[in-house]
């Protein structure tokens, strides 16, 4: 197995510097800027006191997500989805993933008939925008729930535990944690893993970009992801202490 | 671990009866009706002697997929996407998955500057439509490539090996192979696995529908999937012999 | 008047072999595969216990149709309407025709405030897809009504009689019944006729593709259509006996 | 057969007063306001020195039509199609009919690689808007062709003869020529007939709104239509003399 | 300051001939054809006995406008917005301006919970279509209100005063009133001014097309506009006397 | 004239604290975060080495703008335009204004056949987002032009001078500079003014929200705006020195 030189002399199993800034904007019930190195995503949580049609009268709430990328978040400008008149398949895939991941740690009955909208908008993209979105959206959702508790609108928290996400991949034969854009482009296998604070899987999405990957390679990747997510959960916890 | 009673006394690690009918319609270069029990998908492969913009002048070809469901393929009628004016996020997610899976076994350089369109249309849906689509689309693609070889348009095959897919899941604590709709609805964890004929992974997409799942559960599911896909590849091979 | 050689030595006033397969799929209240030679259309009838806005509170029901063509139903692949984001003018024209034709033999008062959706999806197209759709949709609608009667949801049938449709046209000077695609492409005049079992007209749509046509030619075409539809009604009746 | 009292003491086989005003607006190559009683349609013909994709390099031209209705052309305001973001099925059906009807009297080879766009916009609607559109569009097209001849862009006319259209219908058992809105709403059978100046059929579209109609009724309607169209062609000719 | 020769020897501070024709079409509650020279706009006012969502239950009414241009209102044909599937930014900007301008002279409380829809459709365009629309829409709205008063649906008028609009601009250094298309194309500064009958501003929209303009130039333009609007209000008053 | 108490004891003719942060994101040729108090807009300038169709082969360049608002930039969440599938009329109006304003200080010939895309995305909205966008977009455009000059792609600057914008309005009788959201909601008259560094007008858009406004009021507003813009231009200059 050859070895791949990462930027900033990062080790293969090392996260990029992660920064979580709460209350980044003023109006949302939860507002978090999360940075994984040069990747920066603004995650807001908005509470709406009604639910979509399929939940009306159920006594249950709903948690949903939308994802967007500013046109010049990337190296070359991409079209604005609002101007093109539709969201790409990639965008929809990502926002569905974020929504499912957050719902996995919510007891919708305890949330009551209200909706938490999670908006994840990428200010700057350098790989891992979907995993940063999930990790940041959890903190924003926690802030929104804390506000509902403080306001007496909720008696007990509907949040069952932490959820966080990281990407892993095999680049030139080396399994790496938390891929940057340049690593993502050149990788053979790319896997996004979403796990709970308790160390269980919420989502595993592995894709062979080049050659198909072996069971042994998957095992190595899952191990890396587990390490990274455990660190991210600790960072979420520290961030929420302040 | 409790045990779950499957329909038709099916064993937990047993595929539904699979039928692959080639040349199901007359005009497509490849046309396959694939049945996984009551799930029936028509997969056609159409060869077009040009490529999309991002491949023009590259000397490489392209393989892409579209997916659709007839409005009454399901127990209750769903809206026709053409009438609503857009494809759902679910539809786009599935057709992107089918496209990536098939490209994983294609050498696009050897295909030359032409496109193979794979259309997977669900006639009847009883769970597993995306995995049936991938498994059937491979056979349709093989037929289309054989026609290109027979017509002298290709000198050697661009197909690197088989690809097939199966769903696995945990229902009431029991890991099951090839979920029917009723099982899919009630499952805690749902995983779609795409593998090559050589036994390597092309895609792994696991989702906790209820509780998050453990590494041990994932291992059990991957084992089941491996068994199922190995059987599907054999069925593809037999089908292509005739 | 010159004479035109048809495929399979078919006579000018002869229908292609017609096959009507009921219960073709499992879930719809009516599900019919109708074949006019190589043209194959799946017609399903779905009962919905509500009506569109313009019928709400009227005590009357509604019968409506949608039409689609699988992308590779035809000799060369056509774009998927769901992917393009809209139905073509041709598609809308056809589904409006199917809807009007079926409503012509329904007593909407007797149907009660419910909707019958007729979905006509072309699996393979060799000319006459709209006439096959109407002829098959009638059988599917009958099956759905029979189910409503059997379930006690209807006391008496809202169906006033049969309806069926056929195309006729003038090819190289010869009036022909039930045009195949190759005949349709080359014809001077193309007429679609929809009639009731009692031999009255529901729709007549004649179009001069090349030269305008005379009254005498129209009379010849109407005669041919009457013969064809009478045979189709008999085939519908036989099919419904089983 | 009972008898129906028409407005303004009109006879059953009598057209409403028809007025054709050429050069109604200043910029179009042909611009005609046509009035059938209270129905008023502005038909413009615009010449564009290029053709759509399917005619490029063919040496042939194209004739096409678009149809629209001002929101308050009707008794109650209808939605603006541009604001709703799509044309209705009815609109598309009508503009396809107008286009086919006009192409029936054009030799596209003689037109050369240019397009004539016919825009038919209904200023006021009292039944028969599609037949007024066709009848007026012919005059606008003739004016546009005359301008091309006068400018030396065409050596000989590509127009093969007149085309005009009228509606006929059976109201309370009486066959009537040129239905007004109130008659159209209450009619059992509605037929639009498009014929050439030479008395041949270009389009016949008959629809049973209530009961299906007999061959004898159709014959009566076709006779009425023939009379009306012959009068319209005379009016077109007189209008073009000035 | 050089001087610019206007068509028809028009003075720099002179309006084009303005004609206001009421009851131009038969069905709308108000229907006005307004002509500013060769610019012709049909303005209809339609009363609907309900209000949009944001006014429901408020006891207040609503006044809104839509704007359209017939495809061949202009020198060269422009695309039909209904066919393209969306209104241009320019169209939306204009219809929002018309709506705001008319609401400025309406007491929405006195209107009661009903909507007045103003449809401004350009039949022929030679500059100034938005100012003609506002000026004509006022007369149509007045007619619709008069009808509501006559029908006893309103006890007192909700109209607070006149509103009218005109364009002014600087062409080759000369400030001009009421620009024609040819002047508009070549102008350095273009300003649309909307004023009440009492001489107050409702909207001022000035744009430097070429060089930025000075305060002195703006003052000259505002003076011209004031003169023009005062004349237009007189013309509205005369028109409403008949 | 009564007096209105502003937040933070701001004087009537005082700007909110303005902050201009260049190089806010890493990839764009110009990237500016501009803050007018709590209003925060990210303005990026992206250079593309091609021009839209209407400029092809002209030797001239193009400058264009797009505007967006993050869903939770505002007090209550608004729908994401990309998800709704179209940009609102307000959005289009604003981005057209930004584009025109910036083009007013560009010599498009000197820019050469390339496009500068200005993307203005509102992170947080407290009134004045369009004027902050224009003021910030100028700085981003200047940075992008400086880069083109530094890279030798331009020999001389195509920028003719500064452009900046501010809102003014009359609140409870008092003319105020730089309205906050709460002031904007309650104001009688709202005016957005765009001026060059040389003190000439590029755009003036005044709207009577409540009562129409007098010439004297307009004069007071224009004076305020002139003062504010002169201060903004100084701030732009200081920002560009660093």
Automatic annotation (TrEMBL), chains A, B, C, D, E, F:
Residues 14-144, 163-228 form the Exoribonuclease phosphorolytic domain. Phosphate binds at residues 90, 128-130. Gene3D superfamilies: GHMP Kinase, N-terminal domain. Its EC number is 2.7.7.56. GO terms for biological process: rRNA 3'-end processing; rRNA catabolic process; tRNA processing. CDD domains: RNase_PH_bact. Keywords: Nucleotidyltransferase, RNA-binding, rRNA processing, Transferase, tRNA processing, tRNA-binding. It catalyses: tRNA(n+1) + phosphate = tRNA(n) + a ribonucleoside 5'-diphosphate. One of its GO terms (molecular function) is tRNA binding. Homohexameric ring arranged as a trimer of dimers. Phosphorolytic 3'-5' exoribonuclease that plays an important role in tRNA 3'-end maturation. Removes nucleotide residues following the 3'-CCA terminus of tRNAs; can also add nucleotides to the ends of RNA molecules by using nucleoside diphosphates as substrates, but this may not be physiologically important. Probably plays a role in initiation of 16S rRNA degradation (leading to ribosome degradation) during starvation. Belongs to the RNase PH family. This is Ribonuclease PH. It comes from Polaromonas eurypsychrophila. The gene is rph.
């Amino acid at each position: 197995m050859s070895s791949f030189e990462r930027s900033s002399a990062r080790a293969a199993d090392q996260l990029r510097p992660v920064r979580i800034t709460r209350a980044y904007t003023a109006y949302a019930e939860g507002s978090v800027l999360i940075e994984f190195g040069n990747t920066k995503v603004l995650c807001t949580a908005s509470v709406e006191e009604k639910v979509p049609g399929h939940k009306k009268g159920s006594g249950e709430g709903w948690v949903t997500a939308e994802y967007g990328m500013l046109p010049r978040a990337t190296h070359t400008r991409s079209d604005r989805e609002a101007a093109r008149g539709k969201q790409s398949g990639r965008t929809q895939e990502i926002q569905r993933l974020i929504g499912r991941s957050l719902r996995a740690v919510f007891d919708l009955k305890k949330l009551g008939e209200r909706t938490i909208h999670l908006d994840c908008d990428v200010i700057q993209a350098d790989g891992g925008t979907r995993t940063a979105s999930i990790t940041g959206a959890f903190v924003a959702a926690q802030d929104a729930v804390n506000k509902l508790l403080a306001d007496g609108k909720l008696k007990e928290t509907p949040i069952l535990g932490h959820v966080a996400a990281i990407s892993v991949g095999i680049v030139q034969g080396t399994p790496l944690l938390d891929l940057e854009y340049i690593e993502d482009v050149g990788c053979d296998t790319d896997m996004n893993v979403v796990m709970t604070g308790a160390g269980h899987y919420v989502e595993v999405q592995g894709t062979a970009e080049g050659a198909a990957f072996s069971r042994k390679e998957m095992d190595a990747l899952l191990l890396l992801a587990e390490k990274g997510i455990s660190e991210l959960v600790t960072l979420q916890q520290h961030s929420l202490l302040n």
